[in-house]
Write a structure and sequence with these properties.
It is a single chain. About 55% of the residues lie in helices and about 10% in strands. The model has no long low-confidence stretch (mean pLDDT about 95). The relative contact order is 0.20. The chain has one domain: Rossmann fold, CATH 3.40.50. Helix 1 crosses helix 4. Strands 3-2-1-4-5 form a 5-stranded parallel beta sheet. The chain is globular. The protein is of the alpha/beta class. The chain starts with a strand and ends with a strand.
């Protein structure tokens, strides 16, 4: 089970380049392993922020919709909310707070038992017990 972070979704929606190639290779690996592909509502929010800030919002939204066509969306439930609080408190005690959006994404993926697939593993490095794969 693989939860796709915003980075891989953006890279898959790009119009070319090395990042797109690496993202597609990772996607191929996940499909070959018969992983269930999902993302979170928080990743969607980040994608739609990018659409709203784009100079070509219609084109960007079409690219986002094409990438999301075969990807499930995880719900944020009470267990994920509780885990968000636990993780955030832990990170503050360590003196290494993370962005709320990243912790929300991590808590949602962890609650569902999914590994997080991201290009920015450093954003999630201090979150205990979060399985992360990069590309």
């Amino acid at each position: 089970m693989a939860c796709l972070d915003t980075t891989i979704l953006i890279d898959l929606a790009r119009h070319g380049g090395k990042r797109k190639e690496r993202a597609f290779e990772k996607l191929r690996q996940l499909v070959d392993r018969e992983e269930t592909l999902v993302t979170t509502h928080f990743n969607l929010a980040e994608l739609y922020l990018g659409v709203a800030r784009s100079e070509s919002p219609e084109r960007e939204e079409q690219a986002v919709q094409a990438v999301l066509a075969h990807i499930g969306i995880l719900d944020f439930d009470d267990r994920a909310a509780w885990l968000f609080g636990q993780i955030t408190a832990h990170l503050y005690r360590m003196g290494r707070p993370a962005g709320d959006m990243d912790v929300l994404i991590a808590a949602t993926a962890m609650t569902a038992g999914h590994c997080l697939i991201t290009r920015n593993a450093s954003h999630f490095a201090n979150i205990p017990q979060l399985a992360v794969e990069t590309y």
